[in-house]
Design a protein that fits this description.
The chain folds into two domains: 110 residues, NAD(P)-binding Rossmann-like Domain (Rossmann fold); 174 residues, Rossmann fold. The chain is 30% helix and 16% strand. The chain is built from nine helices and twelve strands. α1 links the parallel β1 and β2. α3 crosses α5. The chain starts with a strand and ends in a 14-residue tail after the last helix.
């Protein structure tokens, strides 16, 4: 049996049963209802499951998330050790990498400036820089980082990568030191999972190591970037610009100072929101449910100790 935990759980449950009408699915819309059903849970399908309250989940075998990040759930103090956690790692890597590339092109080709000229009915052109020949630093060489690296190398960029463990990537100079990775980079893309080790990794010290022409893009998790430090760097002209798709608080409050920061492009956590997003997540869920039934290895499992 699958329990769907979400404010729109009824719609999600109906979508699951259209694909697999034989599998029992229960919609759960509130935290209280989830707690009341804790003893009957076997498979939970949820974008934002609670971090606590799993101690009595004696039948629970799998929590299937609707994204690659698991920081909303892990570490979980009372989640039984036997329970597997799965995401959709790699499923939308191309979407996220394309978003990062789009932000690089928006900056390099000065698209906002061109749109302003259009609005003023001004027809004048100036030379535009290219990405070819520029240096890109990618913090995190998982599925997204590696996909972006391949595209950047094909475009003629020099690519530096940061990874905690050695992860050879063709055409990429890899280092375990994030500051070494970003030195001299015109573009920096954050593509790391959020863990205790990466929280505020992009802080004042790292930002100070960047060239003033650098452009920072975050398509990972908001808390990896020290937002006040980034705001300060942008307001003082210490950086050329930035693009954030993720934030420490989401939805981004209307009173957030980020909305008015010069040189900052804000997008509403859409980098990985590819076409048929939910349907593709449901495919992974049902495949993993079948694998549980058959006793075969599950897809996209998370290392609960590592947090990704």
């Amino acid at each position: 049996m699958i329990h769907v935990y979400h404010e729109h759980a009824v719609d999600l449950a109906e979508s699951i049963q259209r694909v697999d009408p034989e599998r029992p699915v229960v919609a759960v819309t509130t935290r209280d209802e989830l707690a009341a059903r804790i003893g009957e849970l076997e498979i939970v399908f949820a974008p934002m499951p609670p971090r606590e309250g799993w101690g009595a989940a004696h039948r629970l075998r799998l929590i299937q998330l609707l994204g690659a990040g698991v920081d909303q759930l892990l570490p979980s103090p009372d989640l039984p050790a036997r329970v597997e956690v799965a995401g959709v790692r790699g499923l939308f890597a191309a979407d996220v990498a394309e978003h990062a590339l789009a932000m690089m092109l928006v900056h390099a080709r000065r698209i906002p400036e061109l749109l302003a000229l259009q609005r003023s009915r001004t027809f004048e052109g100036q030379p535009r820089p290219t990405l070819a020949g520029q240096t890109l630093a990618i913090l995190g060489l998982g599925e997204v980082g590696r996909h972006l690296a391949r595209v950047a190398v094909a475009l003629g960029m020099t690519v530096h990568g940061h990874a905690r463990t050695a992860r050879p990537c063709e055409g990429v100079v890899v280092t375990s030191d994030p500051i070494a990775a970003v030195r001299g980079a015109r573009y920096v893309v954050v593509a790391l999972p959020l863990t205790a080790a990466t929280r505020h990794l992009v802080d004042r010290r790292l930002l100070a190591a960047l060239d003033p022409e650098a452009f920072v893009i975050n398509v990972a998790r908001g808390e990896i970037v020290d937002e006040p430090a980034l705001v300060e760097a942008l307001r003082t002209g210490r950086l050329a610009g930035a693009a954030l798709d993720v934030f420490a608080t989401e939805p981004l409050p209307s009173e957030s100072p980020l909305w008015d920061v010069p040189g900052l492009v804000i997008t509403p956590h859409v980098a990985g929101l590819g076409e048929h997003y939910v349907d593709r997540c449901i495919e992974v869920l049902l495949d993993n449910a079948r694998r549980l039934d058959a006793g075969t290895p599950r897809r996209c499992l998370v290392d609960r100790e590592a947090g990704y």
